[in-house]
Design a protein that fits this description.
Elements lengths: L4 H20 L1 E4 L2 E4 H11 L4 E2 H8 L3 H13 L3 E5 L7 E5 L1 H26 L3 H19 L1
Antiparallel strand pairs: 1-2, 3-5, 4-5
Length: 146
């Protein structure tokens, strides 16, 4: 395959555009319309019950303020509860409500189905191609951080 950076740039831009479009879509869970960002915050809390706002922000790669605003929305929707930490009066721990846990489980099933599709694609790669693909993704991830 002849190298053509324009083709790669266009493909990366198309993938980013599709990702942004998907992130902007609301997903229906029960009677709630939730953004992908809300769902992923629920997933982060569900996978780390008792996490505090600072660690949630670090985990999600966002500011503490952005994390706090998202948690506020999820509390308002009845998906997350905030409890004072047993270790510190200043610290708040985050937990899912029963509804939040239900959404968490449904979203986990969605991800499991998607991972199966991606695994099938990755299984077709040779070990060398798989390693190179992983390096490309790691480098692109670092590039987006700059």
């Amino acid at each position: 395959m002849e190298r053509n950076d324009d083709v790669i740039f266009e493909l990366m831009e198309r993938i980013l555009n599709k990702t942004v479009r998907e992130f902007n879509k609301k997903k229906k869970y029960k009677d709630l319309l939730l953004s992908v960002t809300e769902l992923h915050t629920i997933a982060a809390i569900g996978g780390n019950e008792g996490i505090n706002l600072i660690n949630l922000a670090k985990l999600k790669g966002v500011t503490k303020g952005a994390s706090s605003q998202m948690v506020y929305k999820l509390v308002k929707k009845g998906l997350v509860i905030k409890k004072p930490s047993e270790h510190s009066d200043k610290e708040i721990q985050l937990f899912l409500t029963l509804l939040g846990k239900d959404v968490y489980k449904q979203h986990a099933r969605f991800h499991k189905n998607n991972r199966v599709k991606i695994s099938i694609m990755l299984d077709a790669f040779s070990d060398d191609t798989y390693s190179e693909f992983a390096k490309v993704l790691e480098n692109y991830d670092k590039l987006l951080d700059t």
